[in-house]
Amino acid sequence: MRTVFLASLRIHIRRYVAAAIAVAVAVAFVVVVGVLTSGAHSGLMDGLGAPYRNADYVISAAGWPSSELDPKTAIAYTERHGENAAATGRASLPARANGRRLSETTVGPIATSEQWRWQKLSSGRYPAGMGEAVADVYFALAENLEVGDRVRIGEGAAARDVRVVGLVESPSPPAQASMYVTWPQLLQWRDRLHVTAVAVRGKVGQLPEGAKAQSPDGFAAERLAYVQNRVDSLTVMLLLFAATAIFVSVLVIANTFSILFAQRLRDFALLRCIGATRRQVVRSVRREAAVVGVLASLTGTLIGIGLGYGLIPLINALTPAIPLGTARLPTPWLLGGFAIGLVVTMVASWSPTRRVVQVSPLAALRPNAPVGVRTAAGLVRLVPAAILLVTGLALLGVAMARGSTPVMVAGGGAVFAGVLLFGPVLVPHLVRIFGTPLGPAGRLATKNAVRNPQRTATTTASLLVGVTLTTAVLTGMAAWRSSLAEQIGRDHPIDVTLTSPKEPVTTDLLDRVRHTAGVEQAIAVDGAAARVAGLGKPIPVVAAPAAAQVARDGGAFARVRPGMIRIDSEAFGKNLGLRPGDRVTVRVGDRRARLRVTIGTGWGPAGVVAPETLATLTDATEAHVIWIRASPGADPARLGADLDELADPIGATVENGLRTWESLDRQVATYTWSALGLLGIAIVIALIGIANTLGLSVLERAREHAMLRAIGLTRRQLRRMLAAEAVLLSVVATLLGTVIGIGFAWVGYETIVKRAIRYATMQVPWLSLGAVVLIAALAGLLAAVLPARRAARVTPAAGLSLD
Fold first, then answer.
1. Angle, to 10 degrees, between the axis of helix 331-357 and the axis of helix 228-263?
2. Which whole-number Å values give the CA distances from 401 to 388, 404, 757, in the listed order?
3. CB-CB neighbours of 84 under 10 Å
4. Which of 69, 302, 529, 775 fits 74 for a cystine, CB–CB 3.0-4.6 Å?
5. pTM exceeds 0.85
6. pLDDT in tens, 34-62
């Protein structure tokens, strides 16, 4: 049998190529996940450990994270060690620059010694002494700070003026601060200082009470474990998609072996007739599968290593804010990926091997008809399919009623398994429906596609998995984003507000705002400067019937009934001493009115009233507020900085709510494209399966194609027939997967989204789904190119001579 085994490998190795590609892609995916995970861990370690890279020990709280170092003893410990110690920490302090208050500002230490300095200089220079500071580059961009600006840090007697002498990048999030000053300067605010850790060179000496000493690597590992869930979540997500790719690979490989072994059934029968036992035949075939699995897994491992290490610099270039470090060779992932590829190949070949050797030699030498769905064996297969469908639909109903995610997942899995089992009935019917209008070539393609229902269903099942998940992701993300947009639009109806409580805004200022880069529309809102009882400072009171031009909620927040005033609670924060339903006196000059308070958010420090109410307060309205709607893709930090420059001369304030939208778009886009990219791997494997099935069926039907050529079918018509067959399989699987995916997305919307977001709306991205169908059809056409060319090259005489 060794001779038979080697001969089989030599003769049939080309037929195994597509199966080997599917295995290699799945293994490469697993290995890439391992390399990227290693890089993510390394990047976190590099960032977390940056302040302590030159230390021998790191002193931190023994009970962290439930406790922290006592600031007094930590400061004293640092002072005792002099230049051999450097503390990390920060103090939260108020700050003002360029005549305005900065957002929440934290101040941390920066060492004058290069061995302890971990911040990376972006521009300017490091501070050398008292009165000098550096700012984090992102904080400087958000607050429009530049080198040379003066900042007043602190308040009252503790306030100090510093000059920004440089901008730095801060690679360690736990030690990150808005601004950095030298250690002696930071001690001016020691009563507000929180010390995270102390880096020490040499002997640690007497530790502060409640402290412990660790190596820098041990300290970084401890901090990394605290944020480990983030990396593990990423790994789990990647592994889920890897599992999808592996499952699709199993379908492709099993179908490939089924076709191969069906074609070689006569060979196996002849071997049995001349004395080979079932065990010998099985052993020989499984050796072939093992060789394919080993070679494909080894190839996939090498490809995965190359791709993984190649993706790290690309990811760092595209997302510099979340850098990946140098990945160590992830040996467990390499071994695991190799083992998965080999096991998947062996498992996928197990059932086809058992099926062919169970047939007696004489029966195998006769023509073999596939199991039909109307036979007893075919009907038996439909029973569990029906049970799974009914059970799955019932579970999905329960999940929507109770909002249970685990029940939803179980129900979805049961429904999809039922659909796969129904495939031999459902898919051929759909192929007939779509193939009939395609003319003679299309009808021939339809007949070929439905000749073996089981094979057709298995071929389309792999693509069905990928398309269903892709559709569910696209639809689910669209529904999630539209629902979040609706919610945020109600909570933050105005992107950016420019409010001048004392001086009115001029027409010239409005024009300059409208011509600012990133502004789509801006309106000046008429009102008057007023005093509202319960608020410590004058505010504009405005009526805004035209708010719909710029508001994300269509101007709903500005529609206020007469006798009421709506206040933005976020704009006043803790200084808001009013509650919904309170009655307050609003005074404009000599006029006053008693109004009932309602609370909202998202339009800045201005009270919104009805036009009738404003008319009772003043006859001469002036614009004190400009409301701005940002252009799609506008940079929130840059837009805010540009508007600050326009607002400062008149003492106006700018409230920038655009960052909420930017964060939403970035997160949804990241998740969507990541999911689609990973699911694309599964779809590629599925298309390889279609190409493989078509290529093997070309070999199987060589005499049939030769006969068609002999009675007048041209090469072009033959290629068109095979292309139509591939497109039919692709389109049917894609349309069926689209319908199922939309259904799953709707269940997820009812189960999760509607319960998480008050104003949720279901949205189906028809344009994106149409693109998926078109791409799948084109990919199916591409998958038919090589098999069609191979079939067309065979002359009728040569084809008819084949056995």
1. 30
2. 20, 8, 16
3. 17
4. 69
5. no
6. 787 777 667 766 667 788 888 999 999 88
